[in-house]
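Obj.: predict assembly geometry.
Materials: sequence records (below).
Method: joint structure prediction, all chains together.
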Amino acid sequence: MSKSVLEVRDVQKTFGAVTAAQDISVTVPEGAVYSLIGSNGAGKTTFVNMVTGYIKPDSGTIRFGDRNIAGMAPRQITRLGIHRSFQIAQLCTELTVEENMLVADAIHSRSGPSFLRRAHDAQARDRAMATLERFHIAEHRDRLIPELSGGVKKLLDIAMAMAGDTQIMLLDEPTSGVASDEKFPIMDLVMDALRASGVTVIFVEHDMDIVTRYSERVLAFYDGRIIADDAPDEVLSDPEVQRYVTGAPA
Amino acid sequence: MDLAATILVDGLIYAGWLFIVSVGLTLVFGVLNILNIAHGSLYAIGAYASASMVGAYFALGGEAFPYGSYVAMILAAVLVALVLGPLLERGLLRFFYGRDEVLNVLVTYAVFLILEDAMKLIWGVNPYFVYEPYTLLGDVEIGPLFYVGYDFAVIAAAVIVGLAVWLTLNKTRVGKVVLAVIHDSEMSQTMGVNVQRIYLGAFMAGTFLAALGGALTAPMISVTPGLGVNVIIVAFAVVIIGGLGSVPGAAIGALMVGISRAASVHLFPEAELFIIYFVMAIVLLFRPEGLFAKTQARKI
Amino acid sequence: ADDTFKIGVITFLSGQAAESFGVPAWNGGKLLVDMLNEGGKLPAPYDKMGFGGMKIEAVIVDEAGGATKQVQEFRNLVQREEVDAVVGYVSSGDCLAVPPVADELKAFTILYDCGTPRVFEDGSYDYVFRTAAHATMDNLSLARYLKSRDFDVPSFAGLNQDYAWGQDSWADFTGAMKQLYPDAEVKTALFPKFGAGQYGTEISALLREKPALVHSSNWGGDLQGFLIQATARGLHKRAQLALSAGDHVIPQLQDKMPDGIFLGARGVNGLAAQARGGELKELTDTMWNAYEAEYNTFPVQAPFRMWQALFGLKTAVEKAMADNGGTKPSSEELAAAMKGLEWDAPSGRIEMALADGHQAIQPNAIGTTKWNAEAGKMELVDIEYYAARCVNPPEGVKSQDWLADGFPGAECD
Amino acid sequence: MRFNLILAAVAAFVVLAAGSVILPDWAMFLFAMALAKGLVCLGIVGMMRGGVVSFGQGLFYCIGAYTATLAANNFGISDIFLLTLLSASVCLLVGMAFGPLLSSYRGIFFAMLSLALSMVLYGSLSKMSAIGGTDGLNIAAPTFLGWAPEGRALQTALYIYVVAVVVIAGTLMRFYFDSERGLITLATRDNELRVEYLGASVRNVMTYNYVFGAVLGGIGGTIAALALGHVDPEFAFWTTSGEFVFVAILAGFLSVPAVFVAAIILELVRSFSSLYFPNTWQLALGIFLLVVIVVLPNGLGSLVNRRKGKAA
Amino acid sequence: MSLKLENVEVSIQAAPILRGVSLEVGTGERMGLVGRNGAGKTTVMRTITGLASMSAGKVFWNGEDITAMAPRDRALLGFGYMPEDRRLVPDLTVEENMLLPAWVNDQIDGPKGLEFVYDLMPELTTMAPRKALLLSGGQQKMVALGRALIAGRKLLLLDEPFEGVAPALAKRISEVITSLKGEGLSVLIAQSELSHSVDLLQRESVIERGEIIRVNVIDASLAEGA
Ligand SMILES: Nc1ncnc2c1ncn2[C@@H]1O[C@H](COP(=O)(O)OP(=O)(O)OP(=O)(O)O)[C@@H](O)[C@H]1O
Ligand SMILES: Nc1ncnc2c1ncn2[C@@H]1O[C@H](COP(=O)(O)OP(=O)(O)OP(=O)(O)O)[C@@H](O)[C@H]1O
Ligand SMILES: [Mg+2]
Ligand SMILES: [Mg+2]
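Observations (raw structure tokens):
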């Protein structure tokens, strides 16, 4: 396997009496696709939050390339090329769908956002439209966020996260709330785009079909710990995982 | 008596007054999410109402039992709350719930302007005095200094008011239901909460507290137009220091401002004008959302 | 129209100063305007109708809102309402801001009330006049009063509002005291915020410091609040209170105002004017009685200053008309007539003696409060009257310098 | 697009400048003052787009006014261009000093902290009797590149100057609002977390807006001082700042011209109500305010510039 | 205990969201409401709770027209609503959040409801004293469900109850809901996916672009047989 891009070592995090991460160690090779599963409150989002700087671990290191990014600000980490989407879509609620895309586009424009270049410039709009079309949400482009249904919000959130040059993409429950017949097309779309540019992907998911289909390796969380870390089939047949996460096989 | 003790006593007296003035503001903000500029006018109206009521009380032969004037003062505040509370909340503010914070500030600013002139139309520009209640409780001698018993009664009133509001909000079901309404009035409705009653109740309570502040102050000042203007900014500062919506915060904010102001008057009178802003800036520097910041719900 | 003379009147109708100054002043003014328009109600030389036979019409504007607003309102009065003269301004800030504009617009303007000496000491204007003495006299008179009554002042302290009026008054008073009581120790100088309302801490500080005398130039609600709280805590028994401008709170406080306070009224106004008698008794009594009849209370300092302004304006208009053959005078003619003018008012003889005839001086009086239980009213006793030239600097001398140099050229009886 | 904007700016200049011929003296002065204040409000509008409202813009209004006055009185500078430039630079520096500090505050805390700053300036100036204390100072009429007009000519020159400054500042701000950074500002207002996670600095956005507001405030203050001929600490008092906020909200953040229209309307309403209702002008103003808020909750700007999307 | 929607129309800012939706949920019936994103499921739920303003149509509860009834009064009828986005009160504890409906409605037996919920989701027992604001997404979902179960004595409205919930728990929950049928409780579940237990639903209405396009009867015996 190629060299690792992300190396999480002995990370701990407690919130008062709750242990959200206990001895978390994960090594993710470049270009790999990992998925995180686990019971509710197991610490999956906390993991994502620590890698992306929203939460500072109590101890442990998170190495990206050759630097320790534990405790850096989200913005700095994003600029290094680690992007993420959110379990609860994070959108600019008073802007239209298109403008949300334009924001992402403007921030990532090569020369940095400008004071003079028009945000609604035709080229930028074309780029935004192209992205929206890829995610099948172009028809909503002129709508404001509160008018959108849950699923569309989710898609836009992912679309925004994918703007710019990414090295690692963390997706927090990308398909929850997305209608069942859309889940695979969406994942196909996202994964194809990411794989094509060699991006390393880590996604959190509760839908085991998605997990088995898209990930190379699965980390199962329970109670702040990783209880299994292996290929999907192995993990899903682990009795502990079945008991706490997936439920006994039907 | 040594200086420190004087500063403490003076500070406490001022803090007691400040707290009564501020706690209603913080309550209304906490529940309705409205920073009520008209709070100062309600304070002034409370003072006028109190002056009128006490005046009427003595005019109707209250001399026989002067302590009844305290009841008249509280009744005045109740009356203000009963009249203006529903009028403002049902008649105006409710149409702006959930709107932009600054827009609501503007709405209450308009109310403030209207009430300022309305007071003039009702009570004229001549001052009202009701000094009787102020001297009724006698003197308290602390060392070489005389204080008026009334000052300590105001502190006591502040403590009672503070405890009452805090206990209601934190230790009763009503208080917890209020929390639910504050956070999400729509969801509260679908759980069966009578949201309108909560809003109205909270606003009336806030109005009552503002008016009470004025009512209790009336005996020691001359009640004149423009009384409310100065109160607003001070109350704002206290509420900001304590953290918006927090009753213990308002208490500590009032204490900090009261005592630092007293220290400044005794030790460094030149700084008195700045002291409140100074305290506020220092607190905000270290705690950007005030001492008792509202806990933010987890977003991601 | 040529048969009416339109004045713009600016004074406080809202805010703190409305009750103490603005409203009583215009109450007095309105009364006088009505009396003049009716004609023959006043003793000579004021028995002619209106201003030189012209009916007086007044446009009134609220002074609340700050100097910026006042400059705009002034322009509106002159350019939009086309008033013939402007009479106004209680606030010193407004009095400083308006004159340059008045000159720019060539609009005849009378500052009727404000106190700061800076208006004409720092500037000079062709169309602007102040018909009341500036505030230096208030505090010097107070110091002179202490001296003339042999009052012992080993130490004194001050409580003044924290703005130019309070700061200047305290500076004037300490300046005068340095000359008259060089050994008196200055204890604390407190400057509570304007409109503070709560003086508990300040009173504690004053009680602790134990000065023999407490000076205050507070006015209005600030003064009333201070007096109520100070008397409740016995400050007046432990220190002599000296109030440089406090007469106007008497009608409201009545017996709540303790006896024995040294009290000024910024001129021989109110009770001191009534007690003075003499040549002006008829004029004073006429105005006094009319005011009392109309408003059920006696006139304090503010209406007196409004009266002296309007009487001055009347005199100037009529003088100008005598010079120009009886037509309505222009601003230039009015200014020429007003310059150096002298006239009688209920508050005494007003002389436009300073600032090249643009700034008035007037006599002053200080007295001591005494409650007359039988009559049920407050009286002023032990009144000392000071001639205008005893308490006002001579022409060409800045008041600060005059105080610092020990009042050279003062002409006291 | 750009072309249209510049065309609009030229048209605005022509229309406004025509006022110097049409308007009576008092109205020209009122307009000049309103436009000067409108500049300050424009700065607030810029901040509003980022989700914060400064209740202390009087700080820069006052610094600008005092800088010009002190420079004029002590160094004899009377040229209006120089004075404006000087005040703008001072405000730029002060803005850059406080901007980073304030940039981590939001909502009412930002408002109150900025208010505290301006109140400290107010308090300090009130205590400085050497420069007039609360009574303030006068400043002589400005000159225009050596030309020293008087009377109506002076008023006209000042008015044209304000109009020019307003049109230039308004155009620049419109450019900014429409730019990428302008859009990021709007995004910040909605969701800072998202903006940070896209890799942009929210503090940076806030600081820029604050600094722009500072410079605009300073220019507004300078022009107001020159027009009035007088400055006093009241320039920094909270009621002054409150009025700016008021205009900004009245205008809404959608349209630049709306800011100046709102400023003019407020001045007119206030002026006429204090004349016709000397005893109840506050009441009249309050009712006017309520009516405007009820009829146009998104500000005057929403009349001309509705955000698209609603009808989709 | 039956709920009936008749030709309900809802528009938001002139945009039609629901276009003549008719729907009936019988006593003790478990009805599904399925459709793609943006089809209008949430809006149907909000119509039933009274939060969405209808432009036409009627809502009946046991034959009584409740179209004009305020949300609060509907709650008092025994409707329990679990919104899609959870909407807990962050400053209250998990337990208080669930008890809230009982505090304002005397007909609800809070302690008994709690007991039932804790039985169903033992995970909640340990979370009970924690403030709701810091819970993970799925944990909040559990609390919101618990709250709806306590409030809903007659009608349960669950909007995407399994979204973001780990499969093990989702299974358990649907089993419990299935077991509620004996108590005469009607249930309406909005879902954008169908992968959960087939036992859960008896019928499902399929909604598309604001219209119910068909109603499927799910025959559990068939499913078992397959
Ligand atoms: N406030 C609003 N303004 C305008 N349109 C709205 C608004 N709220 C919802 N809509 C629109 O109404 C339609 C139905 O929305 P609804 O939330 O009911 O869908 P849903 O079926 O619950 O979708 P999801 O499965 O994604 O939650 C959507 O197209 C949505 O865009
Ligand atoms: N900021 C915080 N403060 C306190 N506790 C927290 C915080 N963030 C997370 N927790 C707690 O840490 C634990 C792990 O939460 P996390 O959000 O990582 O769970 P998760 O695995 O993502 O669950 P889900 O599948 O429900 O989203 C939970 O018990 C949660 O309540
Ligand atoms: Mg999670
Ligand atoms: Mg939905």
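Conclusions so far: The first strand of chain A starts at residue 4 and ends at 15.
To do: check interface contacts against the pulldown list.
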